[in-house]
Amino acid sequence: MNNFPESRLHVPARILAGLAAALLAISMLSACSSVYYTTMEKLGKQKRDLLRDNVEELREDQMEAKEEFKDALTRLQELTAFHGGDLQEIYEKLKDDYEDCEERADAIRSRIDKIDTIANDLFAEWADEIDTMHNASFKRKSREKLAITKRRYRQFHRAMKKSEQRLEPVLTALHDHVLFLKHNLNAQAVAGLKSEVGSVAADVRNLIRDMQASIAEADAFIRHLPSE
User: Fold this and answer.
1) In this predicted model, which residue has the larger pLDDT, 69 or 89?
2) What band does 73 get if pLDDT is binned at 50, 70 and 90?
3) In the chain, domain spans
4) pTM over cut 0.85
5) Domain 45-224 falls in which CATH fold?
6) According to the model, what pLDDT value does residue 72 have?
7) Three-state SS string across the chain, please?
């Protein structure tokens, strides 16, 4: 006999629909990933190659980002140290620099998500393939190699995510400055921002430092990845 009230067993239709949609999305994503990997394998790209390529791309994005954020900070400092000239022209350059930073940050976030997905898929495949081995020595050595690679990836992952977390404070500060100046583009308002620039500069320095650490970890991880 069922001792639970019928109302407790009832699941609202909207929840069921949401669960169904989530399961469908996961299924479609998995199918898309399988097609992607299969296609790339036909082109001679294994998961380790795709991981290496994306880590290299992230490293390039971060190197570019360092320069773009430096440029935006320099432009902001130039604007707040204004001693004559065309304020509008300097502002437009700052706005362009900010938009470059924003686009680069989006690219970095997307790249990090892709790296995580490929790395997890690679490690799962590697572990599954080890289980199919019959040679005990090969199994042991392969498991040791996998464990070392995963440990190296965790080091890189920490540095990568730390640098990603630094993006938002800098972008937020630049966004606020750009919007404020859009509606207050006069010498007095610009001069009043001088006290704020020091904080932005500190955030940019921290971002660049952590990006450099991420780049160094990316180099170390790439050197360690198995190659053909």
Assistant:
1) 69
2) very high
3) 1-44, 45-224
4) no
5) Methane Monooxygenase Hydroxylase; Chain G, domain 1 (1.20.58)
6) 94
7) CCCCCHHHHCCCHHHHHHHHHHHHHHHHHHHHHHHHHHHHHHCCCCHHHHHHHHHHHHHHHHHHHHHHHHHHHHHHHHHHCCCCCCHHHHHHHHHHHHHHHHHHHHHHHHHHHHHHHHHHHHHHHHHHHHHCCCCHHHHHHHHHHHHHHHHHHHHHHHHHHHHHHHHHHHHHHHHHHHHHHHHCCCHHHHHCCHHHHHHHHHHHHHHHHHHHHHHHHHHHHHHHCCCC
